[in-house]
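Reviewers of the previous submission asked for a worked example of the structure-prediction workflow described in the proposal, so we include one complete record here. The input consisted solely of the amino acid sequence. No template or homolog information was supplied to the procedure at any stage.
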Amino acid sequence: MADKVETIRSSSSGVIGRARNEARGVALTLDSSTHPKADAMTNSEAFLAGVSSCGVTLIEGHAQETGVPLKGMSVTIEGVRAAAEPNRFARVTMKFELAGVSQPQAESLVETYRGR
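From that input alone, the workflow returned the following structure tokens.
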């Protein structure tokens, strides 16, 4: 399989602290995480959303491929930044809620995500 290249173009939006981002013709506006009045999703929130949505899509796909009867799921992710180091996450936690599967099946699906 050939390497997959994914390209995002970010540019000034005309508002300080806000950027316009585009990939494959799809646009997304993101605000700085330090912007005093964030009207759009912030950069940090978008990063966390990318991680948690990866969990959803990977687990749903794996369940379908392996015949596990997953009916639906959600992932809540929380990132904590220490005041002393606001440029990085001190801690990130994820809570997985899976419907339609047994506890052992849910644990196995989440472990598959963690292993990838």
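The beta strands are 9-12, 18-23, 26-31, 72-80, 91-99. We consider this example representative of the routine output the project will generate in years two and three.
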